[in-house]
Write a structure and sequence with these properties.
Layout: H1 29-32, H2 35-40, H3 46-52, H4 57-66, H5 76-80, H6 90-95, E1 124-125, E2 131-135, H7 162-174, E3 180-184, H8 193-204, E4 211-215, H9 218-221, H10 228-234, E5 240-244, H11 254-265, E6 269-276, H12 284-296, E7 300-306, H13 320-330, E8 341-346, E9 351-354, E10 361-365, E11 368-372, E12 378-382
Parallel strand pairs: 2-3, 3-4, 4-5, 5-6, 6-7, 7-8
Antiparallel strand pairs: 1-2, 8-9, 10-11, 11-12
The protein binds iron/sulfur cluster.
Amino acid sequence: MAFNIVTKNNVRDRFKSAPRPEIWKDATDKDWNNWIWQQQKRIKSMDVLEKVLNVTEEERNAFAQSHEQFNMGITPYYASLMDPNDPNCPIRLQSVPKAGELNITVNDLEDPLGEEKDMPVPGITHRYPDRVLFYTTHNCPVYCRHCTRKRKVSDPSSSAANKQLEEGLAYIESHKEIRDVIISGGDPLSNSDDRLEYILSRLRAMDHIQVFRIGTRNLVTLPQRITDEFAQMLTKYHPVFVHTHFNHPKECTQEAFDAVARLANAGCVVNNQMVLLKGVNDDPKIVMELNHKLLMMRVRPYYIFQCDMSQGISHFRTPVEKGLEIIEALRGWTSGMAVPHYVVDAPGGGGKIPLLPSKYLISHEGKTWKLRNYKNQEYDYIEP
Ligand code: SF4
């Protein structure tokens, strides 16, 4: 029997580009799709932001009082995703300062994950036996208002100069127990391709290094950064895992789809680490939609992080119950691939602690496990 093969693949067409704001209407496509142009045109001042959005009094005041501690920086591409008339637009909440940032609560911590105390040399956090976090830059295309590393991101004095980079590489080289390196920042894709390739080639030449991960939000905030040349370069250093940070379905555009496709076609595995943020994605329907879109983009939803206790982000924190509610609304109701791990990264450096709704295990006695499924139906599993 002969089969007629249907070759149409319309998945990409289900993702749309946002219209460009008026201020960049005259930019050529070549410029708009060029990551260096996007970097150069980043919005860093209220004057430019006012040309893109109807800025509120609250945003103006919050910018005036916060930008010296933590810069504002928004790529034209990310700004094009914003609703100019809605101050509660999820893209806007993540990138434009709000009054809540000025509020430091008693439980806020400057270094919520205790990354500095586990730093044997500047730029390396070595907490777990077999893996390290390697900071390579303090820059990011967009400064996320909920950033965990506000204490150093965007601060030029924390920049990873070549000397620090060499010391970090030397540390990794001399610690044979390290098998996994998370290349981080800031956003490591703020480094040039040459600098990144130098880092990757040095790591790949070490026999004890098995894998590395590149932790980047460029797929979300500056997808133009993922050029064919960059993706091609990565193929020399596999296995390369890319961990990214989509928080809302609005961020799943055709540009993001294409950027992920370039990485996936080059053999990278792409995982998503969503942060649970009040007003942005604290709704099971939004997370379900996000995760379905991510899977269509070939991104695996990997973690949902409870918003940590970094200074000036308490307005983004939800109750822990919200995260459990989201997991309960996903588990069983959609494919397991769309259900990430919900974790609290323990304050002070305790590491990631997974949380699950308590309903699934009713009791356990001897060889009998009384279990409850997603529809609240009960079952006994009896061990042999
Ligand atoms: S991209 Fe990452 S490191 Fe940079 S500001 Fe956003 S959350 Fe922080």
